[in-house]
Every structure is written in C-alpha cells, then in structure tokens.
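Quick start: what a row looks like.
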Amino acid sequence: MNNRLFFILIVFVLGSLSGFSQTDSLSINRTQELKESPKEYDPLAPSKAAFYSAVLPGLGQAYNKKYWKIPLVYAGIGGGIYFYIENNKEYHRYRDAYKRRLAGYEDDEFQGVLQTEALIDAQRQFRRNKEISILVSAAFYILNIIDANVDAHLSQFNVSEDLSLKPRFNIDEFTGKSAYGLSLNYKL
C-alpha cells in the first residue's frame, strides 16, 4: 500500500514540475516555421472543377478531393434515371392497353379492372412522373457542377487564426449576470 502511495506521489510531483519548465524561444520559432504556409491562390481552380464535373459527374468532386460526395452525385442522377425507366415501362403498359381498347380488342390485362378513363388518367400520371424524373436527374447534374465550383472557391478561403470569430462568455462581477457575445479578432 505504501509503495502505491509513494508511486502516485512521485508521478504527481513530476507532473506538476513539468508545468514549470521554461520554453526555449528557438523552439517556438521552429514550430511557427513548421506550420503550413498558405496555398497559393489558383483563380482557375473553380472553373476547372466545374468543367470536370460537367464532363463526367463527380470528377470535379474528385479534383477538389471531396471523394465522399461522388456517391451522392451518382445516387441522385441514378435514382432519377431509374424512376424514369420504371415510369416509362408503366406508361407504355397503360398506353398499349388503351390503344388496344380503341382498336376494338377486349383482351388487355386491365379488362374488367379499369375503365377507359382510368387508363387515360394512369397514362397522364406516369407521363408526369417521367418528366419529374428527368428534371430530378438534370437538377442533380447541375447541382454537381455548382457544388464542385463552390467547393473549389471555398477551399481557397483563408481560415487562418489571424481572422477568427469566437464566442465569448463574460460574467459581470457586480451583478453576477452572464453576458454572451461574439468576438471578431483580426491580426495584422
């Protein structure tokens, strides 16, 4: 038991003494030199990223090194294409049944189940869904291009500690009330 207490006391004393150690000014200068220097601004990077995304969706995200966005782009575009194909099949199914009824045949798959007006309504619904699916795919394609462009712009944004916005919490010593605020720091 005494050995444990002695060991804990030694660790506590050595830990507290390490806090009083002096720092070397040369080591501080070296750590400041080791910090990454800001990248040089490339004004063509956003246009390159947008062009790459326009040529092949997701390529602009790969150019920006945001690889996790590529599956989202393909899921959005692929989902729109999938629903277009499914709605197109259903549209042609109801359309063929309607055409057969107009031709005088009474052997379509919806005979006795749906009236002619219901076939017309179903055609309208599936045609509308096809058009919406095309718009969704086009919207994801355009959003892919815009995302690559904006992300390339923002990746070159200066986020150094010279300009920072930090939350502040102050307690008034006289009244004891707390005050919340934001502090904008700018170092030259």
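That is the whole record. The mean pLDDT is 82. The beta strands are 163-171, 178-186.
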